[in-house]
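=== RUN LOG ===
request id: a7f3
mode: sequence -> structure
chains: 1
length: 77
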Amino acid sequence: MSKVHLQQADIKVEYIPAHKFIGIWDITSSSYGEFWQGGRSCDEISGTLESMSNLTLPEQLGQTAGWFYQNGQKGYF
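=== RESULT ===
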């Protein structure tokens, strides 16, 4: 990679108080790609999450992904 395209990373650590998290998951999905297979609508899911923005603190309606465990089984969140 050319040095022209490199830039210093801005790294910070923030304390986030305990909070509830609203999410959508599929116990059968093991990855991002698998989650979106089967007719899920990105627009519908994003719209549903956005419609709940009045329940969040400012700038906390981020859409992210991760893993969850239910009954000893790992799923994509």
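=== NOTES ===
The chain is about 20% helix and 10% strand.
The longest strand covers residues 67-70.
=== END ===
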